[in-house]
Amino acid sequence: MSASLLRIQSFLGSDLFYSFKKSKLTVVATLITFIFIVAAFGAPWLAPHDPYDLTALNLMDALLPPAWVEGGTWVYPLGTDNQGRDVLSTIMYGMRLSLIVGMCSVLLAMVIGIILGLVSGYFGGVVDTIIMRIADVQLTFPAILVALLVDGVIKAAAKGTSDNLAMAAVIFAIGLSFWVQYARTVRGSTMVERGKEYVMAARVLGLSAPLIMWRHLLRNIMTPVLVIGTINLALAIVAEATLSFLGVGIPSTQPSLGTLIRIGNDYIFSGEWWITLFPAIVLGLLVLSVNLLGDWLRDALNPRLK
């Protein structure tokens, strides 16, 4: 029997999988999240239309209602926007951008927070004081304000922002606003672990501090970090949608869910409610599902609840 098959069997028989099966709400949230991820990253093959293909757009098809409303057509099941783009297709492509920005920003925040938390907790002293005071200062400002500030500074320094640079600026801005939680959690876990015997033995063997942190400490502090990362993914998606809704996030040429909601908001009082309603529903379901997964993971991996 192969090692991978043994791991799968071990997981299926674990307490974690039993906890997952027992929670029907978590199973439903996982299914919804999986469907959204498949629809988002499979958009080039699954979407009925390509909203980025300008040659396929027809302004005569602009502002068509959903198919079940009078005047609608099943060619565009959820209707069209002001440029004649299929709302269903733009949601799928926009969800992909929202997930990419959310995942990349969480990964960036995780890397920054883990490194600073390890250094702060392992060395202590002046290094710990400086890093934690910086974290305390950042905590006094809401994350969205920090993201707005960083995004504005990057775009102002760039002078003539391209679409790729705009996305990178949003990722960096959100990531830089979320690192504190990781750093404080990793610092606390590192301060507990650094006094244990395996760390002492590594020091006696002459291993360097970076090597001890990478080989020994990191693997023992990742559980709470993964839980925070899952929960922060939902927060990062909301932060990106907020920035895009305010007009400083992803450009309208490559709309995310937040951009779609902002575009539809201009037409909601003229009766074209579907342009903003369907992206808002998808955003809400996506964030809710990821949050439910994060809550379950936090409870399932908490030894005090076992």
UniProtKB/TrEMBL annotation:
GO terms for biological process: transmembrane transport. It is found in: Cell membrane. GO terms for cellular component: plasma membrane. It holds the Pfam family OppC_N. CDD domains: TM_PBP2 (cd06261). Residues 95-294 form the ABC transmembrane type-1 domain. It is a multi-pass membrane protein. Keywords: Cell membrane, Membrane, Transmembrane, Transmembrane helix, Transport. The chain crosses the membrane at residues 25-47, 99-124, 130-150, 162-180, 200-218, 225-250, 273-294. Belongs to the binding-protein-dependent transport system permease family. This is ABC transporter permease.
